[in-house]
Write a structure and sequence with these properties.
about 260 residues; alpha+beta; 8-stranded mixed sheet; 5-stranded mixed sheet; about 40% helix
Amino acid sequence: MLRSALLNVMVAAARKAGRALKRDFGEVEHLQVSLKGPANFVTAADRKAEETLRAELEKARPGYGFLGEEGGLQEGSDRSHTWIVDPLDGTTNFLHGIPQFAISIALQREDTIVAGVIYNPANEELFMAERGKGAFLNDQRIRVAGRQRLADAVISCGLPHLGRGDLAQFRKEFELVQEKVAGLRRFGAASLDLAWVAAGRFDAFWERNLSPWDMAAGILMVREAGGYVGDCDGGDQMLGRRSIVCGNETMHREILSLLKAANRP
């Protein structure tokens, strides 16, 4: 693929932050044996990655706003552009030495996401998308899977834990979906779940109680790979309602239908 100047900026920032995360990830294994554990170390790695991303993006596009998981919203002089950034999606995986984590960067222009990068430094998988120009994995074009039957589908989902989210609601949804599909997966990094739907690895994905930085880049990724994306209530307000359902047209419709059935009074 021929990358635009904008994507080059985003990729360069992701790779720079990713190099430090990869080094830190290598240290986590050694810290697992300590009684105190690596939690503080991982928190520091997360913050350091966000600082790197903010500095690199600000240098290339001064004045753009920045919405990050660690630092919240920082408005810039250019009110029409905002970076939406998760410096370390999959923190729990990272903490436990599981190589399923990513840096996620999206650019929102007005109310539209126009570019996205999702990068897993552990395996060097770099997903990229720009509005109207398709989605790519390491410069190779990707498309959502074409499977049309739930019985053949592998579906990814989120999973409420530690008092976060509505576990009773999830159990109802899980029960209905589980009996219809070939497999359910919970990998612990929403940005990568979305990227994997775009790449055709998962047939669909749904999750509730997400933040904008968890899914902004992935929303564009799936759409540019030919997929359908909406919120869990059947609308188009993923960032506002903090929920997402996606897949090819059939899978999106079928999963949404099951979620609605699970939540009927």
